[in-house]
6-phosphogluconolactonase
Amino acid sequence: MGHVGCIQVVQFPRSRPLTPLPAVTSKGGIRQRFLHRSVDIPLRQTSALPGAWHCTRQAWRRSRGDVKVSMGGYAPPEDDEDANRPDALGAWKRVREARDDIDLSTAPSEVSSSAPNASSTPAGIWSSLLSTPPAAPPQTVPQVFPSSEEAAAALANFTTTAADKAIASRGSFTVALAGGSLVKMLQGIKSVAGVEWDKWHVFWVDERCVPHNDPESNYAGAEAALLKDVPIPKSQIYAIDESLCQTADSSAAEAAKEYETRLKGLPSDVLPIEDGLPVFDLLLLGFGPDGHICSLFPGHPLLKVEGPWILSIEDSPKPPPKRITFSLPVVNAADQKCFVACGDGKAEMAAQILQSRDSESAVPAALVTGNHAQWAQGNPEGGFGRLHSKGPGGVDGIEKSKRGGVTAKEPGQGDIENIESAGEGDSEEEQASLCGSGSETNLEGVEKGKQSAGRKAQKFQPFTENRSWDMEAEMRLEDSGKDAKILSWE
Ligand SMILES: O=C(O)[C@H](O)[C@@H](O)[C@H](O)[C@H](O)COP(=O)(O)O
């Protein structure tokens, strides 16, 4: 095909055609999205490498290898491992290798205008890429809800949408749950109609090393809030092995090892592994008032551990002290991560997470990369409402909406994304119903939640936009001589 100087989009022979979506302009270039097997595959063209198109690592993963982005005509140098990667970083490295010899500003002439059949041949794809005019950037609207019921309903909608996509793509859905105040919010999921529960596989991002009937058990909380009422096969609920957590002397390390072994024994159509890490479809995360996620606490050495998937901790600052947890690389390898923040007490930390992202002082929650959604329950006139201010604890770019909520002016890098009020505030009593203080035990919180009023039907806009891989920043980094392997920047 002679695509000299450009990255060529190739479809494997048996894959379904890509459906081009309208192109958008975004930070660093023009972005084109394709719909493929129900997933968006964004490609972008950057000013740094005119004529070249790139896709994010996460999009590559989500395409499940069905779409290949490669550079025609240039073999990767053998001694550069990264240049052999099939994803955007590899493609970029290959282009960097070749850029002295080629004219990167020249798009392949045979696809510039008259290529046949826009979506079924590489030339056609190029043609549609080149001819689609840029559109306005999409709005992304993660939301703050004045009532926990509304936040729970939005979370339910988001989760079941993610499940539908995963099931359509590979026949199963893997979701990993946190504990804490998130647990009560899970109740909303059971009222969604038409869920293919038999395709769900449920895990825990962290678990306290206690028996299942212990009020501190995250498994027990999720069981009471959701699992006991939905027909997920028991064999697809991956709780900690409680036989390893019976006494105060129990070793969390053994429980972690057992959990990891069980995950590694799952077939790849249930839990795919990429770059040595499991790719969960969705993580439902909380964050603590200190910014911890899972059982990864600020300043704790576990944050830096990269090899094992599941880690143990015996000195958790949040009781109980013995726990097992996903490692940070496992968290970041997941396809989607959703933060749920309950109550105004989390607003200050939410602001800190937004502001410290990408900085040395980032708290664990700010180290989570990739695709995010955030649902928060709080008072738009209270703690979360203050996020609009530029003062201490405030976040630039977020302003109050007419209805008393807060909404972002534009999705800026490092934002917790746009935040919008979902309606008028509910009573204090109702606010407390699904959103506990976090200090009460999981089971107590669920009991309280059961007494809440039924949820309201509501409009909900899912978060779809990727935090894109910033290729220009990565190039600047490499030029500055620093380690450029910021592969999870997407
Ligand atoms: O076992 C746990 O403690 C949880 O799994 C933990 O990961 C939780 O998500 C955060 O601690 C936030 O908890 P709160 O929402 O209760 O603050």
